[in-house]
Structure formats: C-alpha cells, structure tokens
Here is the input.
Amino acid sequence: MSRSKKTRKVGENNPKLAPRSKKSERAPARKKQDSGNKAGSRQNPATPKGQKRAGTDKQDIRLGSKRPVTLDIVKEKVVQPKQPKLTDEQLLLQLEEDPRLNKLLDLLEEGRQLAADDQQWLERQLAKIEKLMEKLGITDLDQADEAPGKGHSDDELLEKFESGAELLKQYQDN
Here is the structure.
C-alpha cells in the first residue's frame, strides 16, 4: 500500500464549513471564564474574608490607641433628684434647725459683733421665719406668755380650772 500525505484540502466527501457571516450579525461573545489563580497569587496569597493580613496580627498589643488623650481634669455634673416641695411646717422646722442660724443667734446673745454679710443673711432668715409663722398663724412665744397674765390673778385661774373640772364631770355623766 502506498503512502498518502495529509493535505488541508477537503475532499468531496467531507463536511463543508458554514459560510462566514459579518461580525455585527453574530451573537456577542461571552466573557472568557476565569480559571485558575490571578497573577501574583503565589507572592500575595488571598486571605479569607474576616481575617486580617499576617502583618497586622503581629503588632504589639501594648501599644494601644494612637488617639490623643486629654490631660484636663473634667468634673462630672452630679444630677440630684428633685425633692418634693416642703410644706410650710416642714420649711419652718428646717429654717429653725439651721446650724448656721443657731450659731449666729448664740453669738448675738453673747454680745459679739457679726460681719456684714452674716448680719444680712441672719436678717433674711429671720424675715422668712416670721412670714412662715404669720402664714401658719403661730404667734411669738413672748407675746403668748404675756397675754394670759394680763388681768388674771392666780385665784381667777384656779376658779377657771375648777369650773372646767366640773364641766368635764357633767360631760362624762351624760
């Protein structure tokens, strides 16, 4: 058998190629599918999401933040809860029990001179106390002591007391 050489020519029996069409008429070619790793992947391996690069993990944790720290001392405001309003009686008791007021009154009784600002403060406090006492209908103790003594002798007071005892007995009997 004789040897035949290969040729590029298609014989009559082989399938014919489809006729060539214009490029604009052809369907657009798809993007070539990526296969394999990108260039330089051996030197820069890809890290999974959520992980940092190896260089950032090696940082010294003692270094801390680079944000500047303020050295000023800042006083925090202390918020005090609002106290309910005091009644007139409670306010009067509070004013009378004030240690500064008592101290200044003791100094005045001893006959010492007060500083001008202490004197003004004392006058304001006493004025407040007087207003509250008038509002509550409380009279001064000095005036209360003098009122029963006027026109009443000991005998008259004793008679009033005894008649009061008689009235009490009548009330109990009924």
Notes: The two ends are 162 Å apart (CA to CA).
